[in-house]
């Protein structure tokens, strides 16, 4: 289940209802899928064949189609990252820069962990959303954010798009952001 950490105060928020309410307040969609639907052989696998990616999409087909029909997504795929990913450190360096997109960034975590760092309202500032299997998040369009892995450095996530070009990252230089 997702947890929030507010960077300025170190305050943590946990528990589905509180996390959901906090994120809703910040304009961030948060939902939860049953990650237990994933077959056991895929729960701890971070290097995936095309067949295995298709299998993951099939397992969550009804959840994906429900979300897509409510929010207008037209395409989806599966991304897997781990130490087996070539140039993972370089990739993470590229990821770890505050940016925006012209469409929202949707991720449903199938396995592993990840963090979205998001610029919240003025009184909150930047906050981390730590995600685990089953968590579904949508960072709104034009909201400054970035994504990185957690200590386990592995994740499998479903991504949904309205159109793939809408997902290009636009750097957001922010003197208020402190690493
Ligand atoms: Fe992004």
Give an overview of the whole structure:
This protein is of the alpha+beta class and 179 residues long. It has a single domain, classed as Sandwich (Jelly Rolls). The chain has four helices and twelve strands; from the N terminus they run ββαβααβαββββββββ. It has a five-stranded antiparallel beta sheet. It has a five-stranded antiparallel beta sheet with strand order 3-9-6-11-4. A two-stranded antiparallel ribbon has the order 5-12. Strand 1 and strand 2 form a beta hairpin. The longest helix has 11 residues. The chain is globular and about 45 Å long. The model has no long low-confidence stretch (mean pLDDT 95). The site of fe (ii) ion has 6 residues, from strand 10. Its cofactor is Ni(2+); Fe(2+). This is Acireductone dioxygenase.
Strand and helix layout:
Layout: E1 3-6, E2 12-13, H1 16-25, E3 29-32, H2 50-59, H3 61-71, E4 75-81, H4 88-95, E5 99-100, E6 105-112, E7 114-119, E8 126-131, E9 135-139, E10 145-148, E11 155-161, E12 170-171
Antiparallel strand pairs: 1-2, 1-8, 3-9, 4-11, 5-12, 6-9, 6-11, 7-8, 7-10
Bound molecules: fe (ii) ion.
Briefly note the CATH topology name: Jelly Rolls
Distance between the termini: 24 Å
CATH superfamily: Jelly Rolls
Q: Strand-residue fraction? A: 25-35%
Helix/strand/pairing class, anyone? Answer: alpha+beta
- Main β-sheet: number of strands, strand sense, barrel status? 5 strands, antiparallel
Structure summary:
Ni(2+) binds at residues 99, 101, 105, 145. This protein has 179 residues and is of the alpha+beta class.
């Amino acid at each position: 289940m997702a947890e929030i950490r507010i960077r300025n105060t170190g305050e943590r928020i946990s528990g589905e209802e509180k996390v959901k309410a906090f994120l809703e307040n910040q304009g961030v969609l948060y939902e939860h899928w049953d990650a237990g639907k994933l077959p056991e052989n895929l729960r701890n696998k971070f290097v995936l064949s095309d067949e295995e990616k298709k299998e993951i999409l099939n397992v969550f087909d009804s959840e994906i189609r429900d979300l897509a029909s409510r929010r207008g997504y037209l395409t989806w795929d599966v991304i897997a990252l781990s130490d087996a990913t070539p140039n993972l450190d370089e990739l993470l360096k590229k990821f770890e820069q505050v940016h925006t997109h012209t469409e929202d960034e949707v991720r449903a975590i199938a396995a592993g962990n990840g963090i979205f760092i998001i610029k919240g309202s003025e009184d909150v500032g930047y906050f981390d959303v730590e995600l685990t299997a089953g968590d579904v998040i949508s960072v709104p369009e034009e909201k400054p954010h970035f994504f990185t892995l957690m200590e386990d450095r592995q994740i499998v996530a479903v991504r949904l798009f309205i159109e793939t070009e809408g997902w290009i990252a636009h750097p957001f230089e922010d003197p208020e952001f402190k690493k």
